[in-house]
Amino acid sequence: MGVIFNDDFRDFIQALNNHNVEYILVGGYAVILHGYRRVTGDMDIWVNRTKENYLKLAEAFMEFGLWERQ
């Protein structure tokens, strides 16, 4: 199948997993992972909408470098 994720997408997914974020991958990458050919330039995720999960998501964003703790 070759390389599916570019480095940034792979690192972001790793940050989500490192912080136990409850999420699912949807959209183009989900289609690709199911074996269909598809070109996409973005990543679509859905996250479980709980306060605890949003806090985990914020930690993952910080690990990925999207913002710093204030």
Task: Briefly note the structural class of the backbone.
Answer: alpha+beta
Alpha-carbon Rg, integer: 13 Å
Shape: globular
> How many distinct domains?
1
Number of helices: 3
**Roughly what percent helix?**
40-55%
Low-confidence stretches: none
Instruction: Write down the overall mean pLDDT.
Output: 89
Total strands:
2
- Helix and strand pattern: HEHEH
**How can the largest sheet be summarized?**
2 strands, antiparallel
Distance between the termini: 41 Å
Strand arrangement across the biggest beta sheet:
1-2
Strand content: 5-15%
Organism: Chitinophaga jiangningensis
InterPro entries: NT_sf
Protein name: Nucleotidyl transferase AbiEii toxin, Type IV TA system
Could you walk me through the main structural features you see in this protein, from its secondary elements to its overall organization?
- This protein has 70 residues and is an alpha+beta fold.
- It has one domain (7-64).
- 46% of the residues lie in helices and 11% in strands.
- It contains 3 helices and 2 strands; from the N terminus they run H-E-H-E-H.
- The chain has helices at 7-18, 28-33, 51-64, and strands spanning 23-26, 44-47.
- It has a two-stranded antiparallel sheet.
- Helix 1 (7-18) packs across helix 3 (51-64).
- The model has no long low-confidence stretch (mean pLDDT 89).
Protein topology:
Layout: H1 7-18, E1 23-26, H2 28-33, E2 44-47, H3 51-64
Antiparallel strand pairs: 1-2
Helix pairs in contact: 1-3
InterPro entries: NT_sf
Protein name: Nucleotidyl transferase AbiEii toxin, Type IV TA system
